[in-house]
């Protein structure tokens, strides 16, 4: 019975220790950014407007334009890209699409969400959503897995009538991420995130020369694609529980101990 009480106390202590680690992995939509984002969009990959996660970027454009933004995403995050296009009062049916590319400009498939939508004639707006796969800390060279670094968003109309071409529209973009925790951890990490300008900066540091930086944004706590994750907490807790269970089982199955022999005359 004493062993069982010790085991119960240990389980309670481990539960209290692990609970904060699990709470830290809960999604926090407002974790970065204050909601005040940029008010313009780029027209190509090289001129993409940088936006932090948690900010709302806006842009005024014309139907038929290609709008580009970029944002940082780290290992263990599952980004969600939401775009809203406010259309003119009078227009024909229009089809809009949002695409997401990684730092190597590889198109990333949406895990789910309405990536392409058709707005009916005279509809006030159209909303698009793309939920990416979880960003991995490391991947095989031949794979197309999302990796830590800069991601590009391209918003454009696919099918529009000639009469609506060039009409003014207002676009909004917001990127948020859910932290997937240790369940998404892998054994490996990139030496550098896929951020444009990293190689140029490395060469500049060796040559002591200045170099242009194409992407300056990064997560608030820096790039964290390393060996640590909360999976280590659960592994350590599992090992401790297994050891305690072994001790308790041994004490329960050993049976009552032999009484000590009292020497004569004691």
List the helices and strands and how they pair.
Blueprint: H1 2-24, E1 49-50, E2 56-62, E3 67-73, E4 77-86, E5 94-101, E6 107-108, E7 110-112, E8 116-119, E9 125-132, E10 149-159, E11 168-179, H2 198-207, H3 231-254
Parallel strand pairs: 1-3
Antiparallel strand pairs: 2-11, 3-10, 4-9, 4-11, 5-6, 5-8, 5-10, 7-9
Helix pairs in contact: 1-3
Secondary structure: number of strands = 11
CA gyration radius, whole angstroms? 27 Å
- H/E element order: HEEEEEEEEEEEHH
Biggest sheet, in brief? 6 strands, mixed
Strand content: 25-35%
**Structural class by sheet pairing and helices:** alpha+beta
Can you tell me the residue ranges where pLDDT is under 50 for at least 5 consecutive residues?
Answer: 1-34, 208-213
Which fold name is given in CATH as the topology of the domain at 49-205?
A: Jelly Rolls
Determine the N-to-C terminus distance: 31 Å
Shape: elongated
CATH class of the domain at 49-205: Mainly Beta
Helical content band? 10-25%
At CATH level 2, the architecture of the domain at 49-205 is Sandwich
Keywords: Signal
Signal peptide: 1-23
Region (Disordered): 22-42
Organism: Streptomyces sp. SID14436
């Amino acid at each position: 019975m004493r062993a069982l009480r010790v085991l119960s106390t240990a389980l309670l202590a481990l539960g209290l220790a692990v609970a904060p680690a699990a709470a830290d992995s809960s999604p926090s939509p407002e974790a970065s950014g204050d909601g005040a984002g940029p008010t313009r969009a780029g027209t190509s990959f090289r001129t993409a407007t940088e936006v932090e996660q948690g900010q709302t970027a806006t842009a005024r454009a014309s139907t038929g334009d290609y709008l580009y933004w970029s944002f940082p995403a780290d290992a263990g995050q599952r980004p969600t890209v939401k775009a809203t296009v406010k259309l003119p009062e009078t227009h024909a049916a229009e089809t809009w699409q949002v695409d997401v590319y990684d730092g190597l400009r590889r198109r990333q498939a949406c895990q789910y969400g309405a990536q392409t939508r058709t707005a009916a004639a005279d509809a006030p707006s159209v909303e698009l959503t793309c939920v990416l796969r979880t960003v991995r800390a490391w991947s095989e060279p031949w794979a197309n897995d999302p990796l830590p670094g800069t991601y590009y968003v391209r918003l454009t109309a696919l099918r529009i009538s000639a009469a609506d071409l060039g009409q003014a529209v207002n676009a909004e973009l917001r990127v948020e991420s859910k932290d997937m925790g240790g369940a998404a951890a892998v054994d490996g990490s990139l030496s550098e995130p896929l951020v444009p300008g990293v190689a140029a900066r490395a060469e500049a540091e060796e040559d002591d020369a200045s170099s242009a930086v194409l992407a300056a944004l990064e997560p608030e706590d820096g790039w964290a694609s390393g060996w640590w994750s909360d999976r280590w907490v659960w592994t350590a807790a599992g090992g401790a529980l297994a050891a305690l269970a072994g001790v308790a089982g041994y004490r329960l199955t050993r049976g009552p101990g032999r009484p000590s022999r009292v020497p004569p005359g004691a």
